[in-house]
Amino acid sequence: MHGNKKTKIRFGLPPIIGGYLFPKIAPDLINTGLMPQLETIEAGSAALLDQIKAGKLDFAVLGASGPLVESDLHVVQINAAPFVIITRKDDPLAANKSVRFATLAKRQFITLSEGFVHTRAFAWFEQRHTFSPNIVYRTGDVPLLKRLVRQNVGIGFLTRIAINPDDRLATLAIDDAHQPAFTISIVHRKDRVLTPAMKRFESILKSYK
What we know:
Elements: H1 2-6, E1 9-12, H2 15-31, E2 38-41, H3 45-53, E3 59-64, E4 73-88, E5 98-99, E6 108-112, H4 117-127, E7 134-139, H5 142-150, E8 155-159, E9 169-174, E10 181-189, H6 196-206
Parallel strand pairs: 1-2, 1-3, 5-9, 6-7, 6-8
Antiparallel strand pairs: 3-10, 4-8, 4-9, 4-10
């Protein structure tokens, strides 16, 4: 029993999902005594997926642009959120609740860099229209992307869960039909033998489904 208490739970968590999920699960982790056992690794979902497959992580919560299907992994989807356009609150677009992607041909975009789920989702919209979006800046830093939008450098493309009231930004739904959604899933390898502590941890994660 003493050994189990010291066993680390290696947990992969992308920054965007971490900002949304971790404050929700932290009280339960503290109350169950699991917080000291948690070894959190932050990286993009693609990198964490590779680490899970290689056995370098016990669990990960991953984002995807649609349902995550991996034959060697146990996958439980716990949430889904739309991708949205973000603008300054005084931008003319902000007067609307939604926008069609086709109407944004003349706007400047700030997007997340390669390695984020958003890249694949943005490509989906790009491939379905007759224009190439004018991307003026790519960044791996979500807070920087938001600051640049507030400074009127361009409009942004993010999942809704990445937006908080403190950001002071307008959020517009995208009207295009059959668009991808940002899905959040708990994953671990099917051949991973879960300790009692790992099972408690998995139960806490699933409680937010």
